[in-house]
Amino acid sequence: MIAIAGTAFIAGAMLTGCESSTQKVDAARDNLEDAKVNVVEAKIELTQALRDSIQADRVELEQKISLYDKSIAELKLKVNTQKKESKAVYEQTLNELELKSKQLKKKLQEYKEEGLAEWDSFKNEFRHDMDELGAAISDLTKNNVK
């Protein structure tokens, strides 16, 4: 009787140990699947955050271009107060600034999302070009005041 009980106990322990290993493998598989899902969700969230950031930057850049366009339009109204000799040069300069502004708008609209590094590079170059346009408008305003 004791031998049968001992054998039953050992068999039970072995079966419990096997089930435990199987359960551990199943749990590990479940954890792996959960981790994969979490990675996919994180990638989706990162992609959306990048798109949101790009969109916010685009809105900011478009607003700045609009301000430049308003400045150019105001300067065009003032062109009639210029002396006849400098009027043609002033108009030509304004037309060039207006063209640069239109080119910047087009460049921004045509930009295709490629990734964070590419956007940062594009944005830095674009802001540099915008700063040059702003400086040219500012210089023209200063020259006009004199």
Overview of this structure, please?
The chain is mainly α and 146 residues long. The protein has one domain (22-145). The chain is 92% helix and 0% strand. It is built from three helices and no strands. It has helices spanning 2-78, 84-110, 116-145. Helix 1 runs parallel beside helix 3 (116-145). The longest helix is centred in the N-terminal third of the chain and has 77 residues, at 2-78. The model has no long low-confidence stretch (mean pLDDT 83).
What is the fold's blueprint, element by element?
Blueprint: H1 2-78, H2 84-110, H3 116-145
Structure in a nutshell:
Helix content is 92%, strand content 0%. By secondary structure, it is an all-alpha fold. The protein is rod-shaped, with a radius of gyration of 34 Å.
Q: How large a portion of the residues is in β-strands, by DSSP E?
A: under 5%
* Uncertain stretches: none
Number of domains: 1
Tally of individual helices? 3
Alpha-carbon distance between the termini? 117 Å
Task: Output the helix-strand order.
Answer: HHH
The whole-angstrom Rg is 34 Å
Classification by helices and strands? mainly alpha
Helix content: over 70%
Note the main sheet: none
Q: What is the molecular shape?
A: rod-shaped
Average pLDDT score: 83
Tally of strands: 0
